[in-house]
User: Fold this.
Amino acid sequence: MPPSTTRSDIEVVNLSKIFGSGEDAVRALDDVSLTIPENEFFTLLGPSGCGKTTLLRMIAGFEQPTSGKINLGGSDIADLPPNKRPVNTVFQSYALFPHMTVAQNIGFALKMLGKPKTEIDETVSRMLKLVKMEPMANRKPAQISGGQQQRVALARALAPRPRVLLLDEPLSALDLKLRKEMQVELKRLQAETGITFIFVTHDQEEALTMSDRIAVMSTGKVLQVGPPREIYNHPAERFVADFIGDTNFISAQVDRANGRSATVRLPSGAALDAGLPEGLSPREGENVTLVVRPEHAKLAADGALKGTVENAVYFGTDTHFHIRLDTGDLFILRSQNSAMPAGLPEMGDPVAIAIPQGAVQVVRG
Amino acid sequence: MSAVELAPHGAETDKPKTRRGDIAWRWWLVAPALVVLILAASGPLLIVLVYSFLEPGNFGGVIWNFSTDGWFQVFFSRDIFDDTVGPATAHLDIFRRSITLALYTTVITAVLGFPTAWFIATRAPDVRPIWLFLVTIPFWTNLVIRTFAIQEVIRNEGLINTVLRSLGLISAPIQMLYTDFAILLGMAYVFLPLMVLPLYASMEKLDFKLLEAGYDLYASRLRVLWHIVLPLVKPGFIAGSILVFIPAIGAYVTPRILGGGRNLMLGNLIELQFGQGRNWPLGSALALTLLVIVVVALLFYIRSTSQPEGQRHG
Amino acid sequence: MGKRNFSVASLPGFATIAMITFVFLYLPILTLVIYSFNEAPSMARWEGFSLRWYEAALNNTQVQDVSIRSLVIAFWAASLASILATMAALATTRSERRFPGQTMVYALINQPLMVPEIVTGVALLIFFAMIKVSTGYQGLGYLIAAHTAFCIPFAYLPIRARLETMDLTLERAAADLYATPMQAFRHVTLPLLVPGVIAGFMLAFVTSLDTVVITEFIKSAGQDTLPTYMLGQLRRVITPEMNAISTLFLLLSLIAVTVFFLLSRKKT
Assistant:
C-alpha cells in the first residue's frame, strides 16, 4: 500500500520492540503491522504483557522502536519526541497535574504551544462543556471524583485537537456503573470530535461494545484485526476465541475445504458446514479445531452432538448446561430462560445438541 | 479540520533523549554534590590513614617520616624506664568501656523504644503523626542542649537532688553527674528517638490481621509477641540498634559534659591526641580503629538484612 | 458491667512504658525551660518568675556573636546542601531503572550518616589544616563546606521522598501535551517539588545548628558557634543564663522542625 494518504491515518509497519539484550532480551512487540484509518475507534485488546501498551507508548513517543516505522498521515514520526507529535494520551493513572486546577490542566498543552490567552480560555471552556465539567473548572484534581478526573484527563488530551487520541486502559480505575457510563461517553466524544481513538484494554466486553475495529494481541503479535462481530463470530485463532467470550472447542476432520468455508465431520459422524479463517486451507482428512459459542448451540430432540447433562447452573437471564459429550469432552450450552421453564433437562438426562448453520468456525492452533 | 497549526507536527526533528544521554545528564546532576562530599567528608578519611603512619610533630601536626608507632600505641605501651612492651591497658580499658556503654545504651533504648513504638503504631492513624512528632522534637534539638538538660536533672543542685532534699529523703546530694551512670543516662536520652523511629516504621507495616490469626490459633499475648510480632519487626530492631550503636560508640559530647575528666570514652581519647596529647598519628590510628568497629557493625547489619526470608529463622 | 472488647494490639504494660518514655524525653527539657525563668541564680530554690536571664543572654555580646555565626553558617550550608541535594535527587529518581553507579552515589551521599562525627571531625581537622597552611585562608568557608557536606544527606532524604511519591507519568503527560523537557520541569516537576525542597532546607538548617563535634574540631580561633560556645561554658559555673540561651535555641529548632513536619505531611 503506498504511504501517500493525506489524511491522519496511522500506519504501523513491521514494528518490533526488544527490551534488554542478550539472554534477558524480551521481544515485547514482534513485527507488527497495522493500518488505522482516520476517524476510527480502534481497540488494542489482549491480556497484560501482550505488547498493547508498548505499541501505544511507541505511537505516543515514550518508547523507541527497535525496528519498523510509524507513519502518521504518510510521514514517519518514529524519531519525533512526544512533545512534537500531534498525538495525545489519556493515561491509565490520568496523570493530572495535582498543583493545577481543572481549567489549568485542560489549558496546559495550548499554553506550552504558546497560544494566546484568549484562545486558551475559549478552548478550555469549550472542552469543559464537552465533558460536562464546567462547574468544576477551578477545583484541584484531588477535589473531584475519579469519574470526573477521567473526564478532565480526556478534555486535557483533546484540547489541542490531536490527530490521534491514545487511551491507555482509561476506565480500569472506575467502578462498574461509571465504567458503563464512560463507555457511552467515550463513544460520543469520538463521534463528535472526529478524532481517531486508539484504545487499549484487556476487557473484551469494553472492546466489543465501543470499537469500530479490534486488534487482538498476544505475546507481541497481532493475531486478528476486524470489527467486533467478526472477531466474536469468526475468530481466526484458538487464542482469540478463548480470550473473547466463552467457547467450546471441538475436534473434527475436514471433508472438503473451499475458500472461506469447509465441510467438517464430527467423531459422531455428523457433518457440519464451518467457516475458515483467511489463509487457512486444510487438506481433506486433516484434523482441525472447531469453535462453537455456548449461546449458538441449541438443545434439540436430535442433533450433531450427544451427551449427558452434568450440571445446570441458573443465571437468571439464562441457564448454563454443562454437558458431557459421548466423546468425553465437556460442552457448555447457554439457553435463554423463558417465563415457563417447562421441559428443561435435568442433571443426568441424556440430551442432543443442534448446531445451526453459520455457528461453527475452524480456528488455527 | 486540520490540526497542523495547533500541533507542531514535523516542525523539528530533535531526537528523544537516548539512554546514554540520559545517564550522562544524571551524572552531571549529581556531580556537584559528590564533589562536595568527597572533598569535605569522604576524601579526607584517606588523609587520616596516611597520617596514622607518620611521626608526631612536637607541637601537633606530623613529621613526614613513615612510622608505625601510631598504630603500635593504640594497642601496646612501652615502659618509660625499662623499655618493656605491654598492652596499652589505658586505651584497651577505654575501648572496652566504650563498647560496653554503647551496647548498654542500645539495650536501654530498645527496652524503652519497643513499647513506645508499639504504642504509637497502635494509635488511630490520624493521631500517629502527632505522637511521632513528639518523639522527633527532642531528636532535632541541639545535642549540647539535650545533654545540658540531663545535667540539670542529675547534678548535685539539680532537679532530682533538690526534690529529694526538700522531701527530706536525703541530707547530702547523691553524686550522679560525672559517673558512668550519667553517661549512660545521657546517651539513652539522646539516642532514644533513633531507636523508636525505625521500630515504628517496621510496625506500621505490620498486618494486624496476623495477630488476630495468632490469637485465633490459641496463642497467648506473650506468644503472639514472641512468635509473630518480634520476627516481623526484626528489621526495625536491627536498624534501630545500628542507628543507636554507631553514634554511641563514637560519642564525644555526652561523655565530655556528663562524664567529667576520668570517665573517658573513645571520642574523648581521640580528641585528647589532637589537643593536649599532640600525637596526631595516634589520634588518627584511634579514629580509624573506631571506624573499623563501625564498619564491622554495619557489615553485620547488611548481612542480617540481606539474608533471604527463608533462612532468617534457621 | 460492660465487657471490654478484646483488643488485638494492646500488650500489657506497653502503654505505661510509652508514657514513661515520653516523660523521660520531655522532663529534662521542661526543667531546663522552667528554670530559665527563675529569678534565683541556682536551681536550689525558686524565687519567682523573671526574664532577667533572657535579658542577660541577649545583652551578652559573645552570645550575640556566636549566634549570628551559627545562623550564617546554617543558612549557607542549608542553602548549598538543598540545592546540591535537589540536583542529586532529580538525578536519582524520575526513572524506572537505576543508572550505572547509582549504588555508589547513594553510598557517598549517606556516608556522613554512617561515619561517626568524631572521625569526620578528625579527618577535616587534618585536611583543612593542610589547606590553611598552603593558602593562608582562615575564614568561615571551612565550616560552611564541612556543614554543607554533612547536611546533604539530611536535605536529600525529604526531597527524594517527595520525588518518589510523584507519579512518574506526570512529566510524560507534560511531554505528551507539547511541553519541552525544560517546560515540563518548570511547570510540573518544580512546583510539585518545592515543599520537598523547603522541608529539606529546614532539616539541613537544623542539622547545621546541631552540629557540634565537627565544628569543635575545625573551627579557627574566634570561630565558635552557639553549640561549641555552650560546650565550653558548661565546664564552668552554670547560671540560668545558659537555660535562657538554650530555650531560645530550642524555640528556633522547634519552629524549623514544625515547618518541616507540616510540609512533609502535605500530600503531592
About this structure: Chain A has two domains: 10-233, 247-363.
